[in-house]
Queue: 4 jobs
Job 1
Amino acid sequence: MSAREAILQATKTLFWERGYEATSPRDIQDLSEAGQGSFYHHFRSKRDLAAEAIQQVVSERIEAFENAMGGNEPLKARIQRFLHQRKEPFKGCRIGRMVWDSAVQDEKLRKPLEQYFRHLEERLKRELDEAAKQGKIKMLLPSEQIALLIVAAIQGGFTVSRAMQQARVDDAVAALEQFLDISIIER
């Protein structure tokens, strides 16, 4: 791994564990084993590094979402595959974790986060609408509400887990699956 990639990987790890504000350039240098000169050779500032690291995480998470949503299984099975992708409930979602830092008021850092959540909602809505159009499902709520609730329930499960230091993501997913069984009727 190049020094640049080691710096990016360390940044992604530390931002997930600590967030942007609690991570210093020195922390990143220590974890990546890159010196200060190497750090600033590859990145002009912590902000520039953060923007690239956040965009990489967003791209990785969108790719994982797309992989879960791909295939020919019924829509609810693909949504469930996405719901079960979570990793460490106490660290939270790699994207959602960043939303709580005040640094995301900076457009350069906020835009990729918006891109991620918008992508999930829009893709879920399109999938729901297409399945309904093809007569594969009947929705008891509008697709945009179902899509938003899916995203919000996952993020909420991570937030509650982190706040309570008790894994609640599985409970949130179970409740969401029950909701999907009620609100989406497969034909």
Job 2
Amino acid sequence: MLEADLVNNINHYLEMKGIRYSNELRMGIGISDITLNFGANRRLKPLDDYFLVSILAYVNKKRKVTFFDIQEMFLLGLEKVKQYVFTLANLGLVVIKNTLVKIVKNIFSVNLGTTISIEAKLKDWKGACLQAQRYLCFSDYSYVALPSETIKNVDLSIFQESGIGLLSIKGKNIEEILPAKESVSCDYILKYISTSKVIEKNVDVEKRHLRANVFTSYILT
């Protein structure tokens, strides 16, 4: 078995359960094998750039700013600032009048639901646990997925101390060996970006298609 086979088996499980997910989500601090989401607003604006969301958050907080204010805050060149601001304007989130930028729509009260990341490994459960901890910066919960025959080698205390959950994979079946603990370091902007990417890749997956699954306890009601 290859790690790709393990990931494909998990993907199959998620598809059968009607769960929205994305593979190899690149977040700068790591690439999670699988990131899934429950309950996020399906009309989430597709913002996948950290500076783009950060600038929007800054404008939203100040209500109106100048291009110069943004330059000073983010240490960006004027052309780059204009590029970001015009992108936000095209999305209908800000308006521009001369050099003044005003907020139009507040996206920071939108429901992001629950985001869960999974790191899949065949044997290196220690390395996987360390990687999974990084994903807590943009996920509410994080798991390591291992083949069922590898589970016997795992020191569960390491997972319990770090708050990382553990999944046993046998074929296309998943068993939760240890539940994950909620992240205390999940950053809203990073979560928005990761959730945005998952929603964008799952426009045809609807909540009513959900089936009972090992992650059901994390579904927001």
Job 3
Amino acid sequence: MARSDRKRGESESDRDAVLGRLRQSLAEVGFALPGSVVVRSYRCGKANCACHGEPPRLHGPYIQWSRSVGGKTLHRRMSEEQLADYQGFFDNARKLKALVAEIEALSLSIVEEDDRWPRR
């Protein structure tokens, strides 16, 4: 058995264990909403408004959900009640992205150790 084969064989069970953990974690993720949520305060376009005063009294705060749809960014305002209802969905989306990144990194490590690829 070649050295690289032993290395691959030894780490294969480790990778299987990691993949099993990732699969279990993926199975536990529920509904997920893409995008981000920010709280913003604005100045309006009216020159005489208090938001342009010194000190400024900005409009808001407004809760804004932003996401990309068909290459365009969509913004929607949310109420505090909606944010409370959907916060778990946004948390799940972050978990999902992290899990996919781990699976991709694990897959890349397998490809990088393959002796059939030319070395740089």
Job 4
Amino acid sequence: MLRHICAALLIGLAVCANAGQAPSPRLYNFSPVNQQSLHVSAGFWNPILAYVSAKSGVELNLKLGRTSADTTAHVLAQEVDFAFTNHLFSPERSKLGWRVFGRRDAPPIRAQIVTTADSPVKTLAELVNEDVAFPGPEAFVAYKITYAHLLDSGVPVKVVFGGNMDGAFGQLFSGTVKAVGANSQLVDGYAQREKKQFRVLWNSGPFYDLALMASPRVPEADLQAVAKAFFGMHRDPEGRVILERARELIGAPAPVTFVPATETDYQNYRQFYRTAPPQLR
């Protein structure tokens, strides 16, 4: 009997002690679309997420799949609650209730079909039945927009997926494919980082950069804390250093900063799905 009483007292003391401690911060997985290689993507995001976690009190853990399609599969499987993506604007995925709250402050991006600067290919018509690389089947700007344009233009090509944008560029410069469906921001970054030159065969209209998004499971207080940390990062000396290192890593021409955004900024993404070829919806 005495032993049971002592055990109960010890449990009670432990509960009281824990009650006096601050609750552990909620841990959320954060998945950005794989735009560069896994090494570069991790090097870009891990310091940013460490900063945001420290400033917001909300722990964000980087979760990357092997390819951009794998990363989006984690998001769709509800293994993730924050994302940096443009893969959630189709009618079916819009039903999941993810909320846009921010974006990277950068000039609008464009879908491009590019080849090497010294390639004999000078027009899209020369790509008929040739191998053309794309990052992956989920890449909205670099695959869906560019491939839709090729289909609309009557230019059938053999689709090759590189896993991410760097992988597709690697296939182009190794001579494996004749051209690449790409994102203009990543074309410029790769050219700067790898000292390569491209010829642009086609440009789309403008689109905003990928969106910072939160799942409906994230409480409003946590979302606001994370958003505040992202948006204030470039005004904090510590944050500016991290963002400058991130810029240098990806070869971005301008400072990396994050700003508020809304669903309205992404209406042309949703418009694409209303008229897209069935296989790309």
